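Appendix B. Raw example, untouched.
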Amino acid sequence: MEEQYKKRFGDRRDARWVRDVPGLTTVMMHIMPQRTDAEVYLNDKIDVTELLQYLEKKNAEHPDYKTTVFHCFIVAIARMIRERPKMNRFIQGRRMYERYDISLSFVAKRRFTDHAEEALMFFTPKDEDTLDTLSYRIAGQVKETKKSEHSTGGIDATVDAFAKIPRLLLMLAIRIIRYLDFWGVNPKALTDGDTNYSTVLLSNLGSIKGPAVYHHLNNYGTNSIMVTIGTIHKEEMVMEDGSKQIRDVVEIGATLDERIADGFYFVRSLKLLKHVFAHPELLDQPIGQPSGFEYK
């Protein structure tokens, strides 16, 4: 992605400056300069019946290693963004940018206890990645993280170090960081691996039997899409032929910055995501390979 684009004046380290922005969007960036000013919330249910059957067969082939529904969500969303590039945009410093890479992140509990620390997980899928390569990488990183009850490096250690600074100095440091953030010149040590700088931040609330709740965006960083995933459950659904069936469904919630694209683009992106779950064999294909989905 980055290697296919020659950087120009005004581009950031992590994204290119989108210059052909509609006038309405340009005005919106000044009327609503903060990301939280422009939040829209989308809530829907996805039929995962075929996906569960697909996973049952896949996991039976390698019982020593388990591919999860959450892994599938990460790969499916990465595929959707690769095919729908406007979903990989963000607004910072009252300009629109499009990332060179797709990045997905989530927060993992080191232990399922009230007082356990959290770890920031950050992944950058490549065009050649499939469900097998990404799920193996995700599971390995999560397993390594849970070996320790405390941060062992990376962005987690950086955050812990900032937390130890006296309050007045921390207030000054954060002010400077936010100023650098506006101009897109924050040091890599503060942005690499930070969930606030990912394309999509996910929260798998289904893993703790929770619902797909609304989750706010953050004015700091570049993250413009927040997705929550609820608990898989049985529900009666009306099929295309008019019949009713009991299906496995999961509720999802997505909070988006409405300035990066319009509602029509968002809805079509959701339809593509549903198409991938209805045809889970697509997850075995490289992310960079088009799905063949016909937008109607």
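End of appendix B.
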